[in-house]
Amino acid sequence: MNKEEFLIQMQDVLQTEIELKMETVLDELDEWDSLSMMATMAFLDKNFGVKLKIADIKTLVNIGDIAAKAGIQ
Amino acid sequence: MVSFSAEQRFVVTGASSGIGEGVALLLNELGATVIGIGRNQERLEGMRAKAKAPGNVFLEQKDLAEDISGLHVYVKSLKEKYGKFSGMAYCAGITLNQPLQLKDYETSRRLFDIDYFAPMFMTKAFGDRRNTVGRGTSIVLISSAAANCSARAMSDYCGAKAALSHSARCIAKELAPHGIRINCVLPADIVTPMTLADPDILASKNYPMGVGEVSDVANLVAFLLSDKAKWITGQNYVVDCASF
Predict the structure, then answer these.
(1) pLDDT single digits (tens) B41-53
(2) Domain residue limits at A47
(3) How many domains does chain A fold into?
(4) Tens digits of residue pLDDT in B184-231
(5) Is A28 on the interface with B (CB under 8 A)?
(6) What is the domain-level CATH number for residue A54?
(7) How many angstroms separate the CA of residue B130 from the nearest CA in chain A?
(8) Whole-prediction pTM
(9) Minimal CA–CA distance to B232: which of B139, B166, B145, B133?
(10) How high is the ipTM of this complex?
(11) B126: nearest CA in chain A?
(12) How many C-beta atoms surround the C-beta of residue B174 within 10 A?
């Protein structure tokens, strides 16, 4: 999965109409709540075999941080 | 009194006959715009011909069980065509007598596709705030009184409806923070083409106030879709006239 594909997928994970960029700050998205955190964890596990805890998720600042966990630069 | 505006768009599945047709016609009569989905274009036209405001009834021919993985994309395309939705009434379904010794996997899976997976993935699409008006969106799934009953040769149907009813309760918790509601209506046998196809169904039970009519179900569905029901979600409402 490349960067562009990752951003398209995240669009569906967060179900947001705001166009996501790597710099998009998670706390500035209305959609960034406990359920979308769970969805992000499931997404990383299913597609990249990356298992995170809620505490890990809470340290992420922007979309790029999620990409970094997935190994996408 | 429940009423809607033409800006409120509802998708009704199974809209060409039975409960779906009744729900589509009632929502339209109460002022809403209805997008009726059904497998048969001719029967869909027949529904629209009965509508009080046919200008606010749009028809989409589609077999929802054909490509369940693609339902999300399908609903997105409907949103792009009609605008954001205020909700959905999922009324499509099949019933099937299949005694245990005749159970076969293909038939069982087909039933679950239509009665469980298709409504689940339509619900996924309507839980996506990009397809709906967001807060105030309401989803109603037609389950069945069979979800709470046991009957010979009905293990798949009862099982699929029980699964649907219970999944809806879980989904309600996921959607509530976003102001989106989901409820199930569980009718007993109602006079529809589905039940009339098997006269034994209607004859075999003792309904103290007579057999149910489509309007008995449709009025509850309309209420649950409306803002009058704004604090009601995750519930299963049995409409069976105390027959079971």
Answers:
(1) 999 999 999 999 9
(2) 3-69
(3) 1
(4) 999 998 888 877 777 676 666 667 887 889 999 999 999 999 999 999
(5) no
(6) 1.10.1200.10
(7) 6
(8) 0.91
(9) B139
(10) 0.75
(11) A15
(12) 14
